[in-house]
Amino acid sequence: MPYADLDLEAGRKNGTVWVKLPNRHFDPEKGHRLYNRFLDELEYGEKLGFDVIAVNEHHQTAYGLMPSPIVTASALARRTSKVRIAILGSALPLRSHPLTVAEEHAMIDVISGGRLISGFVRGIGAEYHTFGVNPTFSHDRFHEAHDLIVRAWTEEGPFSFRGRHYEVKYVNLWPRPYQRPHPPIWIPSQGSKETIDWASHPDRRYTYLQTFSPAKVVARYLKMYRDTCQGHGYQPKDSQLGWAVPVYVGADDESARREAKPHFEAFRNVFVRMPLEMLLPPGYTSRESMKNVIKAKAQMFGDVNIEQAIELGLFVCGSPETVLRSFENHFREMRFGNLLVMCQFGTLPSDLTRANMERFARDVMPGLRALG
Hints:
alpha/beta
């Protein structure tokens, strides 16, 4: 849900649309139209046969107008009846109390009749500037918040919880989740080794999603996840792996690139961009993971045009045949069980977004399902 009416030149001059772009650039009337447009498009995903529609959480940015994925997921829970709803995810270390997350996710799960997928994230580095939270405690707060949420979902209350960051005398969740033992948990990540180690642990075996990265980097991190699972003594299922990537399906290769070009390049070179010190503030991750992420994303700090993005696998674009063939090739290498396609990106308008969704659902999705 980007602020697609953004003055792109203002975003470029500011250096980033994250944290410090003055909010005078937001027009509530335009925001009203955008929110309802985006919700309509997500609801349309159910009619087209998508398995899941997904929302996420970012703060003080024109990149995404969803500071609360709970609000959008709640609206979708009442306006849909079959499609699963994924929150990808709630930023646990940034919230004042994890029991609020436990309650809100449980509410949506019950309202929707058990259609919720719960994603948990630490929040990207920029958001630690937003809330003034010390990133050094990010992992510790995340793990403790996760443990409290899962116990609240699965254990009969009241019981007490005592941790370093959270202490609760009475944990007694009302309502409890619809799904048993709890909604599926997915973990989106930029590629932190610590996150891979934690998500793959036999006690969790959570679905790991590699976010917006070059295809070779995605393949490397998904392999790292598989190798880590094997190191834990088990063979992971394809369903434990996922890839999130923007996609545009046109009538043919030439028209697809022409239609997507200005909107993808606005997404990549204005909406996504942030200084390194915002992306990875000191203490946010280990030195090893920081070096790996910087190396993996080295090609992403300058401007990238659509041709380079397609070459790198940052963007999948073309005719239905081209897009399906590209995903078939990536699947053979990566064996991802979950493909998260961003059918709207940057300034892509509603008519092109809907045409993209329709072509993907009609002409690409059946071939992907046939991969197993």
